Amino acid sequence: MPSTSSSAWSSASDRSSNRSSNKRRRPSKSLLAVLTLACLTAITVDYQRDESSPFEPARGALGDVLGPVQERAAVVARPLHEIPGFFEANQSLRSDIAKLQAENANLRGQLATTSEVRYRAAELDGLLQASRTSGFALVPARVVAVGPAQSFSFTVTIDAGTSSGIQPDMTVINNEGLVGRVTEASRSSATVLLVIDQESVVGARLGSNAEVGFLQGRGDIGGDGRLDLDLVDDSETPGKNDVVVTWGSNNGSPYVAGVPIGSVEAVFSSPREQAKHAVIKPFVDFSSLDLVGVVVNADTEGDRPVIQAGEIPADETDDEEGR
Amino acid sequence: MPLARALTFTLVLLFAVVLQVSFFSFFSYDGVVPNLVLLVVVAAALTRGPELAAVLGFVGGMAIDLVPPADHVAGRWALALVLVGYVAGRVRQDAGRSTLVALGTVAAASFVGTSVFALSGMLLRDPAIPVGEALQVIPTALLYDLLLAPFVLPPAMRMFKRMQPQQQVAY
Fold first, then answer.
1. What is the mean pLDDT of residues A62-76?
2. pLDDT of residue B135
3. What pLDDT sits at residue B40?
4. What's the sign of the alpha-carbon dihedral A48, A49, A53, A55?
C-alpha cells in the first residue's frame, strides 16, 4: 500500500472493519444449519453402504482421477522415507551383523545335529510351498495411500484396479501372509480393507488341528497390532505359536483358503462364557505395507502381467511352455 | 471470479487430501498423519471467518470421506470439519492475530474435529470405535497437527488473504 494514501486507507479501514465486525459478530447461523443438515443427509443416504448409494459413483470417479496423483505422491515420498535409514549406518548395522552371525551359527548347528528337525523342516517347507502355489495367480500392486488412523478404519489404496482384472471381494496377500480384501475397485486403483480393521472378520483355521474360528481385527496398526480369534468349538485350546490360516469360502471370495495369517500369541479363557479366546500376532507388518499381490483367476487378462502359481514373472516364457 | 476462487479452494483441499493419504502415510506415527485439510480450514477461519471456513470444511470433509482409501460413511468428516470451521471462525473475532492464538486454535480444532468424527463413529457403529483407542489417537493427532501448523498455516493464510474479494480488501 503506497504511503501517500495510507491515512485515507486507514480511516476507511476503520470504518469498514467496524462495519464488518458488526456483521461478523453474528455469523450466519442458517449457513451452519444448512451445512450440518447436508452432512447429516449424506450420512443418512450413505449409511446402508450398498451399491445403490449415490456416493459410490463419486468414490469411483475420485479414485479414477486421484489414483495417478496418489501414485506420484507416493513415488516422491518413498525415497524421503528411507533417508533416516542412511543415518542409522555403521554402528547398528555392525551389531546387526554380529547378532545375525551368531543366530546363523546357532541355527546351522541345530539343523546339522537334528536330522529329524531337518526332515520336518523340509516337509514344512514343501507344505508352505504347496500352499503358496496351490493355484494362486497374483496381480502385483503397490500401496499408494493409507487411510489415516484419525478415521479409525484401516484401509489402503493399491495402484491396480479393474483394468488389471481386480474386482471387489478378492483376497490380497503379500510375501508374509494375508493382508486383506478388496472392497472397492475403480479403473486404476482399488481400496483394500486390512484384516486389522475392526470391521474385518476372517474365517480362520488352526494349522495344527484344523479347528475353525473367526478372526477379528482390533483396529490397531502399530507393532502391537493384534487380531482376536474365537473358535467355533469351545472345547479346543489353541497352542501357543500355532499358525492360523484362512478357512476360505466358496469360489475363494472374499478369502481364498490356506493363506497364512499369523501365529497364536496368547490364549485367554473366561469361565463365564466357557469360551477360549486367542490373540493372534499377524505375520504381515501392516505399518510398512508396500508390495502386495491380489489373488485372481489364473486366466485373468489385464494391463499388467499376472504372476502364475509360484512362478517368477521373469521366466514367463518357461511358464508358457511348461503348461 | 467467484467460480475461479471456488475451483482454487477445491483443488487446494483435494491436494491436501492426497498429501495426507499418499505422502504423509510414509511418515505416520502409529498410523496417525497430520490432518492437512483441517489446517487449511483453520487457516480460512482465522483469515476469513466462520462462513467460508464452514463451507471449506464441508467440501474438504467430503473429499476425505470420498477419496480412496476412505471406507467410512460419507459425511462424517464433513460434519466434523463444518463444526471446526465454524467454531474456529468464532474464536478468531475475540482474539488478536498472535501466533499463540493461531496454535491454540489449531489444537482446539484438531481436538474437536477428531472427537466429533470419533463420536459420530460410535453413534453409527461405523466402525464401533473403542473409547480407549480414540483417547490414544486424539492426542497424537493433536500433536502432529500442531507440529505441521507452522509450515501449513502461514502459506495457507497468505493465500486466503490474497484471494479475498475486492470490496473486502479495503479494510
1. 84
2. 83
3. 93
4. positive
The mean pLDDT value for A296-310 works out to 73
pTM, two decimal places: 0.70
In sequence order, what are the residues at sequence separation of 6 or more whose Cβ sits closer than 8 angstroms to the Cβ of residue B152? Answer: B34, B36, B39, B40, B43
Task: Give the residue extent of every domain in chain A.
Answer: 136-304
Beta carbons of B75 and A42 less than 8 Å apart? yes
What radius of gyration, in Å, describes the C-alpha atoms of chain A? 27
Among A19-28, A135-144, A239-248, name the one with the lowest average pLDDT: A19-28
Contact B82 A32 (CB under 8 A): yes
Mean pLDDT of A55-66: 85
Q: How confident is the model at residue B72 (pLDDT cuts 50, 70, 90)?
A: confident
CATH topology of domain B2-164: Arp2/3 complex 21 kDa subunit ARPC3 (1.10.1760)
Are the CB atoms for A184 and A168 separated by under 8 Å?
A: yes
Instruction: Domain ranges for chain B, please list them.
Output: 2-164
- Whether the ipTM is more than 0.90: the answer is no
Distance (Å, whole) CA A118 – CA A102: 19
Which residue in the block uniquely carries the three cell numbers 466357557?
Answer: A274
The residues with which A188 forms a beta bridge, in sequence order, are: none
CB < 8 Å to B38, chain A: none
Query: In CATH, which superfamily holds the domain spanning A136-304?
Result: Rod shape-determining protein MreC, domain 1 (2.40.10.340)
Give dist(CA B138, CA A315) in Å, integer: 50
The residue among B11, B12, B23, B142 with the most chain A CBs within 10 A of its CB, best to mutate, is: B23
d(CA A311, CA A316): 8
Contact A24 B33 (CB under 8 A): no
Q: What percent of chain A has pLDDT over 70?
A: 72
Q: Minimal Cα distance from A47: which residue of B?
A: B73
Is A161 an 8 Å CB contact of chain B? no
Query: Which residue shows C-alpha cell 542412511?
Result: A86
Chain A residue at shortest CA distance from B36: A148
Q: Amino acid identity, residue A198?
A: Q
- Asked if A144 and A191 count as a contact pair (C-beta separation under 8 A), the reply is no
Shortest distance, CA B48 to any CA of chain A (angstroms): 10
**Helix/strand/coil for A279:** strand
Distance from CA of A307 to the nearest CA of B (A): 25
pLDDT digits (tens, 9 = 90+) for B123-134: 887 766 777 777
- How much is the mean pLDDT over chain B? 84
For the stretch A283-300, pLDDT in tens is: 888 877 878 888 888 777
